[in-house]
Design a protein that fits this description.
Oligomer: single chain
Largest sheet: 7 strands, mixed
Bound molecules: 4'-deoxy-4'-aminopyridoxal-5'-phosphate
Strand order of the largest sheet: 4-10-9-8-7-5-6
């Protein structure tokens, strides 16, 4: 029986009775009902009421080539018929993960040539944490195991992912974090820069927090620094240009490994295959997932730099770690077909040279001057809009986050899927967007802001 045999109401009732959702207040879900997305095509998703919604979030930062790609469905179908599954344990292999690993290594920054597959960004960050600590143990420094991360970072929802991340609400429900992970300030100038401090100075100060944490522990106790090149779920926080070069200099000075979490930024979002290139970072590990298959199937890839890979191979023996679906043949076939689409259509270059700058211009010219907007920022096709009550003082509406939720609800009702994180609106559209799609998004953003402003004037 297909879902078409059920009414929306029936589906919502079954959803409430049996389906536990991620990041959801189930009591609220039960009273309000869920929005049912039933199909999608190109840049649009459609709900059960037939509403067409422009997907400004690419699902959850992942559907980079857009919806309805026959090539991806066919790649999965062909692989499923030929070999739906075999594992990569115990010296076995299958062809598609081999070819995908080679392809990723070709696209990756220099000095990064090995790939470990999983099914999610969280899993891959678990793997990264284990590999980095294992590396130092193999190098005879087991006590060099502290990880430095940032407040408001998002690195996933497993125990290790949550521990690496810097989300207070998640830590509050963790019941015991992975030990020896500390969180320093984030490079978020809109809220954290001091009066009179330039962006450049702020970036250096935020990087200095990493050095302070290293000095506090002692460099011989610090394994690695982990960071998203651009913090995503935490509110598309784009660091000043001075930040990453300084973080990299500090990591090198104290021989601290650099772990990049490119689960959002990997495979084109910032206008390069990896944001490592956008920011001139030479990482030791890169966590990727999401856009690797454009979300058509779950797949993650941890990219491991030569330094770690060499030690693991030469001194490590068997690495006692792996997932049933590490190197899943069907997911990897879809990954290969997806990267081929991105290459063939020149989507990375398009973001860098055309749609990225056009998106920035749209935000600046159409959105930045709105009375509700304190700042717009973007890199490639990833952007944020800060919602404020007072543009001059950056005062927010109270209760915190309430104004952004209004903007979001009006946006969705006006046909644009956009997310609210605290008082920040975030956008991360498919990288197949064209100038026309950017224009359509611009229209709907302004409409949502106007409607929210009218509501807020009535409310306050
Ligand atoms: N790292 C980052 C930067 C992410 O944005 C996410 C997911 N939003 C993850 C890790 C976790 O990925 P997953 O949900 O696939 O486990």
């Amino acid at each position: 029986m297909t879902y078409q045999n059920y009414s929306l109401k029936q589906l919502q009732q079954i959803d409430a009775a049996h389906h536990l959702h991620p990041f959801t207040d189930h009591k609220e879900l039960r009273s309000a009902g869920s929005r049912m997305i039933v199909r999608a095509d190109g840049p649009f998703i459609y709900d059960s009421e037939g509403n067409e919604i422009l997907d400004g979030m690419a699902g959850l930062w992942c559907v980079n080539v857009g919806y309805g790609r026959e090539e991806l469905a066919e790649a999965a179908y062909r692989q499923m018929k030929e070999l739906p599954y075999y594992n990569a344990f115990f010296r076995c292999s299958t062809p598609t993960p081999i070819l995908l690993a080679k392809k990723i290594a070709e696209l990756a920054p220099k000095g990064v040539n090995q790939v470990f597959f999983g099914s999610s960004g969280s899993e891959s960050n678990d793997t990264a944490l284990r590999i980095v600590r294992h590396y130092w143990a193999l190098e005879g420094k087991p006590e060099k195991n502290r990880i430095i991360s940032r407040k408001s970072a998002y690195h996933g929802s497993t125990i290790a992912g949550t521990s690496l991340g810097g989300m207070d609400l998640m830590h509050g429900q963790l019941g015991g974090a992975v030990p020896n992970i500390v969180h320093v300030m984030m490079p978020y100038s809109f809220e954290l820069s001091l009066p009179g401090e330039s962006d450049h100075e702020f970036g250096l100060r935020a990087a200095k927090a990493v050095e302070d944490a290293i000095l506090e522990a002692g460099a011989d106790k610090v394994a690695a620094f982990i960071g998203e090149p651009v913090m995503g779920a935490g509110g598309v926080k784009i660091p000043p240009a001075s930040y990453w070069p300084e973080v990299q200099r500090i990591c090198r000075k104290y021989d601290v490994l650099l772990m990049l979490d490119e689960v959002i930024t990997g495979y084109g979002r910032t206008g390069n295959w990896f944001a490592a290139e956008t920011y001139g970072i030479e990482p030791d590990t890169i966590t990727t997932a999401k856009a690797l298959t454009s979300g058509y199937l779950p797949l993650s890839a941890l990219l491991v730099g030569d330094r770690i890979a060499h030690t693991l191979e030469e001194k490590g023996g068997e690495f006692h770690h792996g997932y049933t679906y590490s190197g899943h043949p069907v997911a990897c076939a879809v990954g290969l077909a997806n990267l081929e689409i991105i290459e063939k259509e020149g989507l990375v270059e398009r973001v860098r040279d055309d749609t990225g700058p056009y998106f920035a211009k749209m935000l600046k010219e159409r959105v930045a001057g709105h009375p509700l907007v304190g700042e717009v920022r973007s890199v490639g096709l990833m952007g944020a809009i800060e919602i404020v009550k007072d543009r001059a003082t950056r005062e927010r509406y109270l209760p915190a986050g309430s104004a952004a939720v209004m903007v979001r609800d009006h946006a969705v009702n006006s046909g644009l899927m956009m997310r609210a994180t605290g008082d920040t609106m975030i956008l991360s559209p498919p990288i197949m967007w064209t100038r026309d799609t950017v224009d359509l998004a611009g229209e709907r953003i302004v409409k949502a802001l106007d409607m929210a402003l009218a509501d807020l004037r009535k409310r306050d």
